User: What shape does this take?
Amino acid sequence: MDASDLTGTVTCTVDERGEFLDLRIESDWWDSLGPSGIAPAILDAAVEVLAARPDASVGEIARHAGVARQTVYAHYESREALLEAVASRARDEAIGAIDSARPDEGEPLEALDRLASAWWRTVAQHARVLDALAGVVGASARDVRAFHAPILERLARFASRGQREGAFDRDVPPEWLAVSFLALMHAAADEVAAGRMDPAEAESALRRSVRGCFAG
Assistant: This one.
């Protein structure tokens, strides 16, 4: 969504020196968002802008969302807080995708394919913003692991099931398979972000690599 997509009245407020103070948008679309819809709209704009310019400012994101910079700061007190919200939402979407793939049901290798595809669809949407989000997730392996803990717990539980049923490699801990899956997912996202693969190619390579890793 871009400010040019809006229809309605835009009022810009400046002081006596002509310096920008605020921007007010009056439109049916914007009113329909309501207070609970403004924050998600800002996050959507952040993902779009950061995909093109990882160092984009809050002002650029605000303009793309069609709101004043003050409106962004009313929801997120700093650029870092905004990036943290983008990262947290991406993680929550990934968790939802993993759960929706029903990894506890059916033959483990078939469930693995479902899980990889469902998870990848959410990651692919954020592949080009990972560089911008790296700073808020944390630079150390401990920080990265802590941020992804809910995902790793689900993957390890799934890996344990597959090992008990004889479908997955039993010579490595289930936690190793979980961390390997996460690393392959990030590798696929990096390849898309760098332009070396398109999302479909990355998904195909990811599914093949994950299956080989889990099956042993």
